[in-house]
Amino acid sequence: MEGAKTNICYNVLDHNVLTRNLGEKVAYHWEGNSPDLRLTITYSQLLKQVCRCANALKKLGVKKGDRVAIYLPMIPELVYSMLACARIGAVHSIVFAGFSSESLAERIMDAQCSILLTADGVYRGEKLINLKQIADEFLLVHSEMPLGQGVSTTQLPFLKFKTLWNAECDVWWDEAVDNASEECDPEWMDAEDPLFVLYTSGSTGKPKGVLHTIAGYLLYTSLTFKYVFDHHQDDVYWCTADIGWITGHSYITYGPLANGATSVLFEGIPVYPHVGRFWEIIEKYRVSKFYTAPTAIRLLMKYGIEPLQKYDLSSLRVLGTVGEPINPEAWMWYHDAVGQGRCPVVDTFWQTETGGHVLTPLPAATPLKPGSATLPFFGVLPIILNEHGEELEGEAEGYLVFKKPWPGIMRGVYGNQECFENTYFKKFPGFYVTGDGCRRDKDGYYWITGRIDDMLNVSGHLLSTAEVEAALTEHSAVAEAAVVSRPHIVKGECLYCFVTLKDFREFNHSLMDELKRKGKREKIGPIATPDFIQNAPGLPKTRSGKIMRRVLRQIARNEKDLGDLSTLADPKVVEVLLSQRCEAAA
Ligand code: 6R9
Questions:
Q1: Of 96, 225, 292, 322, which is best to mutate to test ligand 1, by the most ligand atoms within 8 angstroms of its C-beta?
Q2: 357 C-alpha vs ligand 1 centroid, how far in Å?
Q3: CB neighbours of residue 283 within 10 Å
Q4: Which stretch of DSSP H or E encloses residue 488?
Q5: Whose CA is nearest to atom 17 of ligand 1?
Q6: Which atom from ligand 1 is nearest to the alpha carbon of 201?
Q7: Residues pairing with 533 in the sheet
Q8: 501 vs 535: CA distance, rounded Å
Q9: Which biological process, per GO, is one annotated for this protein (predicted)?
Q10: CA distance 93 to 2
Q11: Residue nearest to atom 11 of ligand 1 (CA)
Q12: Residue 444, CB half-sphere, CA atoms under 13 Å: how many?
């Protein structure tokens, strides 16, 4: 669409209010961390708030093309700010509000942001996070920071914390926004102008600033949202991701708004104030389309079906998952217990880099197979290659690549064209390389087998993490499993398995024997016999919930250097695992 002019904010707001007559429709039901905090925002209210924020940004000196760092929790102001940037042609760079000051600093400097929007603080469950203080810590250390035009802080309507205040550069949100006009002409942008930079989740390596542009991204998120969730105007849709990740960008903000959808915007966590919080919210808003991650499903599965039974989930129509391969056990629980056997489960495979779903079922149209992301979305051409870059036909396993671009594909790594080319296009020239392994079955269905870097090579057989882990989680005592390789004199590599047990299950010798058998004959074959099995009360995960197998690999190998841990959610988990390493084979 190069050469065409557009504004994405105009498309997702003004167009809905002015031409589709959706001004009075609810855009978001905001549900706070604490269940008594809530807010309803209609499309016309959203448009006004965005315009005020856009005017405030302009007044603070933000211009077309400038990068704006946003470090906010899941509050409406996060949506207002990102759309305000889009309205005036600024490029948003959202940093998940759980990152440390160092990670925030790295991202602000890499994208050369001129302004930072943050909040005084946020409660996540019972834990208070002083965001402004974290942001200030980094400003003190990095006086060379490019932040020229000052830090604007949003003061949450419900919280007032003591925060350091530097009158030279800090501005309160309400002072900046409250008196701003509710009208702001959109800046007409080129279709290929940048929309945002977002750093990848970093489960394998150093985070990269993925750049997306306007028109293709709008088209792709809008279309995938419509078809993959079978969107209808009376739906209430809820995606539990944080907007700090691509899932939130594409499927909380842009995709749903482009379709004039009503969404739930949730600030809290799944287990606060009780483990039935998700189900309670589904009942409260009569949610019909629900989208979450395997890590959340496995967490909630640990508590059994009792918390579910207290709520009316009959409004649910479609269930979605994203983020990791979903093991068939968790898939079945999602389908049977949450969806009560009525709702198709759409297992959507995609990446920050792909902008939107690339492999996915369409509900009710695609026959499902638990654990498979099924088939490509319209216009997407998946190919499986072997080590030598040869295309494999029919039933096959190898590298997942795409042969043709689609509208939502990333356009670059911010400020680093070389990294963009090397990471995604160099290994197999002519293809976009996902970095994931994949198997195609006899029906042409695609099964993601995990990141290529995490593959296991035992006695010359290439095993995927997903298949061994799926075998272990079949055991009724196991909530979650992660498998990595460890060098072995005879086999080359052997399997080191970390297992998290369900509540009240005991880790003992007979369980170890049963797990060894699971991996072995029953499922995959003798080569998949676990050599080491370690009890893992928790697994190292990124802040978006992906298991960081590279850290586990270092633990299994007793390596002291654990690599870049900045994307790790809870460093304590690693200490526990290190202290309980298995020295002897099981
Ligand atoms: C959207 C998102 C991308 C990586 C991707 C893959 C894994 C995502 C998946 C899946 C199997 C699925 N992944 N969805 N694996 N089945 N349905 O998660 O983006 O944070 O960039 O992660 O996540 O390994 O390459 P991102």
A1: 322
A2: 10
A3: 16
A4: strand 478-488
A5: 349
A6: 20
A7: 497
A8: 8
A9: acetyl-CoA biosynthetic process from acetate
A10: 23
A11: 325
A12: 8
The total of other beta-carbon atoms located within 10 Å of residue 215's CB is: 22
Judge whether 325 and 371 are in contact, CB under 8 Å: yes
What's the 199 CA to ligand 1 centre distance in angstroms? 14
Q: Is the dihedral of CA 428, 431, 433, 439 positive or negative?
A: negative
Q: Are 260 and 231 in contact (CB under 8 A)?
A: no
The burial class, CB within 10 Å (0-12 / 13-18 / 19+), for 148 is: exposed
Cα separation, 28 vs 264, in Å, equals 5
| Gap from CA of 450 to ligand 1 centroid (Å) | 9
Per the rule left: phi > 0, alpha: psi between -120 and 50, beta: everything else, 453 is: alpha
pLDDT, tens digit, for every residue of 371-390?
999 999 999 999 999 999 99
Say how many Å lie between the CA of residue 92 and the centre of ligand 1. Answer: 22
Token couple for 457: 């090579």
Beta bridge partners of 91: 67
Structure tokens at 22: 């959706």
Tokens linked to 291: 């989208």
CA of 37 to the centre of ligand 1 (A): 32
> What tokens appear for 535 in the block?
């009890």
105 CA → ligand 1 middle, Å: 25
Tens of pLDDT, residues 243-258:
999 999 999 999 999 9
Dihedral pair phi/psi, residue 413, rounded to 5°: -100, 125
Q: What is the rounded distance in angstroms from the CA atom of residue 39 to the CA atom of residue 371?
A: 37
Residue 490 · residue 525 · CB < 8 Å? no
Query: Which residue has the least CA distance to atom 4 on ligand 1?
Result: 351
12-51 pLDDT, tens digit per residue, is 999 999 999 999 999 999 999 999 999 999 999 999 999 9
Q: Which residues have C-beta atoms less than 6 Å from ligand 1?
A: 200-201, 245-247, 322-325, 347-352, 373, 434-436, 448, 451, 544
B/e letters for 549-584, b = 16+ CB within 10 Å, e = fewer, are bbbbbbbbeeeeebeeeebbbeeebbeebeeeebee
Distance of CA 563 to the CA centre of its chain: 22
CA of 307 to the centre of ligand 1 (A): 28
Q: How far apart are CA 340 and CA 153, in angstroms?
A: 44
